[in-house]
Write a structure and sequence with these properties.
The protein has 14 helices and eleven strands. By secondary structure, it is α/β, with parallel strands linked by helices. It folds into two domains: 179 residues, Rossmann fold (3-Layer(aba) Sandwich); 159 residues, Dehydroquinate synthase-like - alpha domain (Dehydroquinate synthase-like, alpha domain, Up-down Bundle). Helix 7 packs antiparallel against helix 8 and helix 11 runs antiparallel to helix 12. The radius of gyration is 20 Å and the shape is globular. The two termini are 38 Å apart.
């Protein structure tokens, strides 16, 4: 088992000349420099982190990079979704200039999804593109945002409306960093884990159901065998995403769009609630719950399977209702979703657990009816618990 051996698992992302490897294991921050040296031409780097992660892991990462011969500079951004902004990006450009980065240098993204997206867009655009090393420290970033090359920032009108595809040179995911992940952040990351089972792997979904309550507990409280099982679950999620990205890197065929299950409504919930009110994974959980109900009407998902999905999310301590948010505001936010066409959102819907279809258009009347009926039921259940 991955944890018992204390060895890293190597997961390839096959993209021709842009191929790279995900390194997943324990104690990998100490090898960050050596791994980066093998994948990056230059020896000057800027480590981008946030105010939570930098005090915990910034010096360990920098020491490893220096030991491998890198000249290291650091930039620390405020934690939270609000840092995915044009103002913060402009400040990082200045940091890159002060660091002396040239086209052979690299950006190291040390943190969660916000840091990975922001630093990734910095790498994609500074000097028209420099190398990027993703060093995710959250569950969500390990299984999702650090893999696949999507980078970007938010606009006041919506999430991730400005961005670029920019594949990393490598991903270094040290599972030990989950030791300091707040419990709420860990649960939020599990939403993306559930997503992979729902859209692509029914066996993974069953595994998650069988895990029970321990899956939602903080990494530091897990027994050794539970950590090993979670490590294998994380690895499986990375394998699924690597396979999907390899088949449709820039969402040309529709395959990669499957990864947006729960995100059309989830992004609207994040925006309307106010960034920072809900974590990304919490909003995605709400989006998947609504999507499951839509799928029973529009894609033939058996109601019992929709119940299983909602039940798993609730069992992991994730929200499944957009409480206190107005439908008109949510619907307006969906008009500017990246996948919307002619102001009509495109949905990823489940045909069954483990199989999804993308690009679905849901009639407006059905969309509002499902939201009002199902959300009110879920709100009632939440309040009665």
């Amino acid at each position: 088992m991955l944890i018992a051996s204390r060895m890293s698992k190597l997961i390839p992302v096959r993209l021709g000349s842009r191929s790279y490897t995900i390194h997943l294991g324990v104690g990998l921050l100490e090898t960050l420099g050596a791994l980066s040296r093998a994948g990056v031409r230059g020896r000057t780097c800027l480590v981008v982190s946030d105010g939570h992660v930098a005090p915990l892991y910034g010096e360990r990462a920098a020491a490893s990079l220096r030991a491998a011969g890198f000249t290291v500079s650091a930039a620390v951004v405020p934690p939270g979704e609000m840092s995915k902004s044009s103002a913060q990006l402009l400040a990082l450009y200045d940091d890159a200039v002060r660091a002396g980065l040239d086209r052979a240098g690299c950006i190291v993204a040390l943190g969660g999804g916000v840091v990975g997206d922001l630093a990734g867009f910095l790498a994609a655009t500074y000097l028209r593109g420099v190398a990027l090393v993703q060093a995710p420290t959250t569950l969500l970033a390990m299984v999702d945002s650090s893999v696949g090359g999507k980078t970007g920032i938010n606009l006041p009108a919506g999430k991730n409306l400005v961005g670029a595809f920019h594949q990393p040179a490598l991903v270094v995911a040290d599972l030990e960093t989950l030791q300091t992940l707040p419990a709420r952040e860990g649960r939020a990351g599990l939403a993306e884990v559930v997503k992979y089972g729902a859209i692509r792997d029914a066996q993974l979904f069953q595994t998650l159901e069988a895990c029970g309550g321990w899956l939602a507990q903080p990494w530091g409280t897990l027994a050794a065998d539970e950590r090993g099982r979670l490590a294998e679950i994380i690895a499986r999620c990375c394998e699924i995403k690597a396979d999907i990205v390899a088949g449709d890197e820039q969402e040309q065929s529709g395959l990669r769009t499957l990864l947006n299950f729960g995100h059309t409504f989830g992004h609207a919930v994040e925006q309307v609630a106010g960034y920072g009110t809900l974590l990304h994974g919490e909003a995605v959980a709400i989006g998947m719950a609504l999507g499951a109900r839509l799928a029973t009407r529009q894609a033939g998902l058996p109601p019992a399977e929709a119940d299983r999905l909602v039940g798993l999310l609730r069992g992991l301590g994730l929200p499944v209702a957009a409480q206190g948010l107005a439908w008109a505001d949510l619907r307006a936010a969906m008009n500017v979703d990246k996948k919307a066409q002619e102001r009509a959102p495109r949905w990823v819907l489940l045909r069954q657990l483990g199989a999804a279809v993308a690009g679905c258009v849901v009639p407006e009347a059905d969309l509002e009816e499902v939201f009002r009926n199902e959300n009110s039921k879920l709100e009632f259940r939440n309040k009665s618990q």
